[in-house]
Design goal:
Helix content is about 45%, strand content about 15%. The protein contains 27 helices and 21 strands. The protein has a seven-stranded parallel sheet, sandwiched between helices. Helix 7 (about 160-165) links the parallel strand 5 and strand 6. The chain is globular.
Length: about 625
Amino acid sequence: MKETPESILEKYWGFSSFKGSQKQIIGSILRGKDVLALLPTGGGKSVCYQVPPLMTEGICVVVSPLIALIRDQVSQLKARGIKAVALTGGISFEETNTLLDNCLYGGYKFLYLSPERLQQEIVQDRIGQMNVTLIAIDEAHCISQWGIDFRPAYLKCADLRSLHPEVPCIAVTATATERVAQDILANLELRSPVLIRDSFYRENLIYKVSYQENKNQRLIQMCQVDAASSIVYVRSRRKSEELASLLNQKGISALHFHGGIAREEKEKKLQQWLGNNKRIMVATSAFGMGIDKPDVARVIHYEMPESIENYFQEAGRAGRNGAKAEAVLLISKNDEQRLLNQFIKVLPDVAFIKLLYNKLNNYFQIPYGSLDEENFSFNFNDFCDTYQLNSALVYNGMRLLDQHSVIALSQNFSNKTSVQFLASKNAIFSYFEHHPKEAHILQVLLRTYGGVFEFDTKINTLLIAKKSEVAESTVFTTLKKAEMDGIIAYKHEKQDMELTFLVPREDDRTINVFAHKIRDLNQLKIDNVNAILKYVKNRKECRTRQLLSYFGEKNESACGNCDVCLHNTPKSSKDLKTLDSDILALLQKQAVSSQGLVESLGQERDIILKELQFLLEEGKITITPNNEYKVHK
């Protein structure tokens, strides 16, 4: 009997029917059509390009942005008995050659690779020889300069079309505005494409923005409510470690996850969380892409994301099993300024890029009109210190110069030195007495960085050297000795990056070529930040409607469950009586502030304040000199 999409789905995935527009997408591919599929997070994008190749002769080439995502999908395919191979970084030329031979002659159905791999001549040559049945571009928003996670290397995906012009191509993404979708269509050179968009509406997912004076207390309360599996998103590696430690101290099983963790440890942590041996994963934003855990009941953003796209994608990792789930964004009064400081104030404008390029040439003594193709060793901290430049602006500026092929940077661009004190304070004081030369530098380190006793902390060794009035090499020697003596844990990877100039020096004229792109991208980032701030501040329109509207989708009815809908829905007298009873029960035990009641009862602040006013007028409660409420006796 001839295989059908449904029989393939049941044979390998165990499902009897498709969901959403999956069948329509697969049917379009089987008819040889190019497809742009815009599906929500958890909408089953990978199935759309994995089913068709299993019904035809040949191999499917999949371009994907993250190594972890590639490994996860290849592992899942192999577990289903489907032959798939991943062409990732860190493998030798000989191994690459062997893997490509396997794709040519070994009956493999899927070849996964990063966009950077497409730039290798051997890879293009072999793909040109393969019997390719489908080209799939995953996370296709990366190809658009207007999309989140723009990867210049993604623009090379169009090369696959020239290698196999007759083969259908599918691009899939879960986060694309109309502008990004048009960019995908143009950059991939899709031919008369079928555009299929499933609604981004998730009936089971409740969005909430919660204003808190004490985020830690509210986080603990939410994690104590039930035994639900959750993700807590933070902005920094250190914050992930801090919050996981805090939750564990409160008896809540939690793990931290970030890019600085060794691969083996990452895999161990992931399996503990997937198997529900650990309940809470506190992670930086990269976590979750390509990870299929359907029973995540709560996604908490402890810090404000930089864009609606990021927030929507991360929030969408909750409730993939269709059960009720929450996406909660915690907000405090200083968050807006932090977001502006972190993303807007460090955007290098055209004038700064010109200044930076000029200083780089002067630093390496490159004459005007000259092109020296030497690989220069470059100490980032020393450069910033020499010209008194803001390190964040320099970092972002150099990335722009790299993206526009003015310079090429080595991969260890962002490597850092980190320290954590291991010994007790008494042992450290004793060490200082017996090692006076090292003591001064270590004391400067302690005064400069808080938290070095609790967490692995990134440090600027040049800054420590300047404050200590010693050479930077002396700082490294001191840290190495302190590590050998058991005082600290010390990590140091070579911080000098390698820099290569790719075009002759022409100062401003070099930058003018792409100056308009810098302005456009800066404006895009400003617009992204303004959009998330607008979302947070809009307490009149349903959260779901706001999000869907951002992606160009209309939803006539409000969700009825988000913080805005609950706030705008009048409480019945029965509900208010229950709330009054709950307030009085808490105040019977001890005096509590209004914020404490908000956090304890999980109600909107305005509702709590209104009921406190009612109870005060009724003479049932009083206010203490500390602005706390207690039962009137």
